[in-house]
Every structure is written in C-alpha cells, then in structure tokens.
Amino acid sequence: MAGLYLHVPFCRQACHYCDFHFSTQTKHMADLVAAMVQETRLRVSSEPRWKDQPFTTLYLGGGTPSILPPDLLQHLVSGVLEALGQPVTDFREVTLEANPEDMTETQIQAWVELGVTRLSLGVQSFHNDTLTWMNRAHTGVQAERAIHLAHELGVKAMTLDLIYGVPTSRSWDNDIARAIALPIQHLSAYALTVEPGTVLGTRVERGAEQPTPDARTAEEYQRLCDTMAEQGWSHYETSNWAAPKPDQGHHTSQHNSAYWSGAPYLALGPGAHGFLGSVRYANVSNNPRYIQAIQQETLLDEREKLTARDRYNELVMTGLRTAQGISPEKLHSATGVRPHDVDAEAWTQALGDGRLVEHQPGWFRIPEPNWITGDQVASSLFALD
C-alpha cells in the first residue's frame, strides 16, 4: 500500500512563521496543475513500480490547495488519477488542506463531489490578535462558522491545526476549548518554531521579537495532553490526537500513519518529497523552474539512496514519536539492525532511566510526558557511520 501526495504551492498571503515552499503569485495556477499531471506520467514512465502500488490514501497539501478554483482542482485530481489508472473511489481516505476563508458552500460542495472525505483545517488559533500577528487571513469566528458549515454539508471527518508556544496574550486554554467544542474528529498541534528567512525569524534576529520561553511552550503542551486525555482522545503521535469513534477505535489519520510506518508515497509538485524502496527524492522548490522542466519532460529533483542504517534511523525517529513506539525485532526485519546491536549501552541506559518503557511485549515507547523532547531520545539510539 502507498500514499499519494499532491503539493499545491499557492497561498493568499504568507504566514510570518512558515518556511514551507509556497508562492503568493497565483497567475500560473493552470500551468502548475498541468505540470503536476504531466509529472505523474513521467514518474510512472521512469519508475514502473509506481504502477504496481495500490494507493490507499490521497492527501492534497501545500501551500493551500483550497485556493484552487473547483475546475482546476478537478483537473488536477482526475488527471493524476487517470495517469495512475486508479479511481478516487479506491482510496480509503482523501484529505484536502483548507483555510477557513476559502470555505464557502460552493467550494465545500465541489470538494465533496470530487471525492474529498476529510478536511485538514489551518486554524492555528481562535484569538484574533494572534491570528493577525501570524498574518492569517481569517478570524476565530470565521473558522468556527466554516467548520460548522462543512459539517452541515456532509463532511464528517475534519481535523484542525493549532500552534502552541506563541508569544501573544491569547488564552491557550480557550483555544483548546473552542477547538474540541467543534464537530471535529482529529487535532494536530505544533510548537511555534523560529525559522531563518521567515518574517518571524528576521524579527527575532533583529531583536524586535522575543521567542517564547521553552518552559512556557512545554507547559502549554502538557496542558493540551491533559485536556485531551480527560476528553477521551487518543494521543497516538507526538503532535496528533484522535477522537474516539462511536463504535470502536479512534479517528486517526491513515495517510500520515503510513508515513510514520515507512510506507512508500508518490509526491507530486514543486517542493514535494517522495519515497519508494530505498530511494527518496525532493522536487525543486521553484515553481517556474519546475513547470519549465516538466514541459521539457524532465524530472528536476534530487535523489538519495538510503542505506539500511538511514532507514533504521528514520524508523526509530518516526516510531518513537508514536504511542506504538518501536519493536527491535520489527526494525531488524526491515533494516537488519537492532537498537542494542547499534549501541547496547545507550539502549540499556534509556530503559534504565525510564526514557523508554516496554508498554507491551517487544514494543518500546517514550512516556507521554517526555514526548515533547522525545527526538533527543531517538537520536541517542541512531546508528552512526
């Protein structure tokens, strides 16, 4: 099974903290969509194994895919799926990232008719002053109304993003409460990071902005963990929570869960990263160069062949961000490497001081209170050359 990711690199305006590849110049949307459809054909032609992959999840991310007019979005999805020879009805989950300001009745209905089964909503906060500080284009009330509208129009699976560790006067508890009062089934929350080259990064570098103290960021994360646990939500990955289903289980993200397990994924569009077998590729993060190369039937990407140790390190990193954790025997089956073979002392020490616990036979995880710094545990177990 494999995932399919379509990167739509357009935004109405630039968030001050964002360092993803995007453009606010939208006049070449049609050319970009045509290029992504053509890239699909080129990928399949250059790597026939993509034809043999049963794609089970489709994720439209960005950027802001909800900015695309319905006809262009239809052309993108139908063109890509035709090139792969797979109808949209074959997918277990079809997710579209959307911003509240794009969520009109016409747009939402078009998404549902296209086959979208899940919306991922870029809310970030419900506090208007904080949204202005972030340079977001919606208000808190607008986000709430958009989510209720989508629910009324038949979208029964929605997740929203929040950002914690923000140096504004907003009430984090109020943001959490307003989020879980909505008809959503999933929540993703991320710590604000100061990235070089962003507006926020430049402000901090000049001393015009002070980053949030680590203690406050950690405290807000723990409050979120506690609140979601009280509500019965499953904290199944460091940054992700799933609401309980009425029948059984929880509303986890199937697409992202496949990423974390090391499944292959075909990624299309400028700035997109894909993976198959032992090869990872990254498309050029430049819209005009991407379009020109595809028009010349050239894949303009960088490729890396991963060693067994590379794969081991990645699976340790992603696995220890989840509630399931890692299995030394599963790691050995996938990569030929076990943690205690890499560094027996580091493995024994992590177990001895409680940074790792065996939560079921043969499976080890980081205790939830330590998830916010869990990457440090994972890196201590890496196989180094």
How would you explain this protein's 3D organization?
- This protein is α/β, with parallel strands linked by helices.
- It has 2 domains: 2-258, Aldolase class I (TIM Barrel, Alpha-Beta Barrel), CATH 3.20.20.70; 308-380, Arc Repressor Mutant, subunit A.
- 40% of the residues lie in helices and 19% in strands.
- The protein is built from 15 helices and 14 strands.
- The strands form 3 sheets. The protein has a 9-stranded mixed β-sheet, with helices on both faces.
- A hairpin with a 2-residue loop joins strand 7 (234-237) and strand 8.
- The longest helix has 18 residues, at 29-46.
- The mean pLDDT is 95.
Query: Per the principal axes of the C-alpha atoms, what is the gross shape?
Result: globular
Helix content: 25-40%
Any idea of the CATH topology of the largest domain? TIM Barrel
Report on the biggest sheet.
Answer: 9 strands, mixed
- What count of domains describes the coordinates? 2
Strand order of the largest sheet: 7-8-6-5-4-3-2-1-9
* Average pLDDT score: 95
Overall SS class? alpha/beta
- Helix and strand element order: EHEHEHEHHEHEHHEEHEEEHEHHHHEEH
- CATH class categorisation of the largest domain: Alpha Beta
Going by CATH, the architecture of the largest domain would be Alpha-Beta Barrel
**Beta-strand percentage?**
15-25%
| End-to-end C-alpha gap | 31 Å
**DSSP E strands, number:** 14
- The H-level CATH homologous superfamily of the largest domain, spelled out, is Aldolase class I
- Secondary structure tally, helices: 15
